[in-house]
Amino acid sequence: MPDSKTILIVEDEAMIGMMLEDYLDTLGYRLHAIAESVDDACAKAREGGFDAALLDCNLADGPVWPLARRLKAQGVPFVFASGDGHGIPEDLAGAPV
């Protein structure tokens, strides 16, 4: 699908990342990359080239809030994917969970 949107997955659990990749593929989206840390994800955000992001809230190296704020400032849509939708900072509370 040449017109399909590309998605950045930010997830530090490899099996969940692969499952999300398969799920998005089934829905017709293309994977841009899987980032497993906040630092890696922020680097991918600086590079750009994706249409939206799916963010795990809590990564091994800390919460994903700096990335979410960067994406928000860049106008890149994102969704928090978390089993725990609590604790999202007030300035990011409007994002879908």
**Number of H/I helices:** 3
Instruction: Supply Rg.
Output: 12 Å
Structural class: alpha/beta
Quote the average pLDDT. 92
The strands making up the biggest β-sheet line up spatially as 2-1-3-6
Number of strands: 6
User: How many strands, which pairing sense, and closed or not: the largest β-sheet?
Assistant: 4 strands, parallel
* Parts with pLDDT < 50 across at least 5 consecutive residues: none
How far apart lie the N and C ends? 27 Å
Strand content: 15-25%
The amount of helix comes to: 25-40%
- Sum up the overall morphology in one term: globular
Order of helices and strands: EHEHEEEHE
Please characterize this protein's 3D structure.
- The chain is α/β, with parallel strands linked by helices and 97 residues long.
- It has three helices and six strands, in the order E-H-E-H-E-E-E-H-E.
- It has a four-stranded parallel β-sheet with strand order 2-1-3-6, with helices on both faces.
- Helix 1 (14-26) links the parallel strand 1 and strand 2 (30-35).
- The radius of gyration is 12 Å and the shape is globular.
- The mean pLDDT is 92.
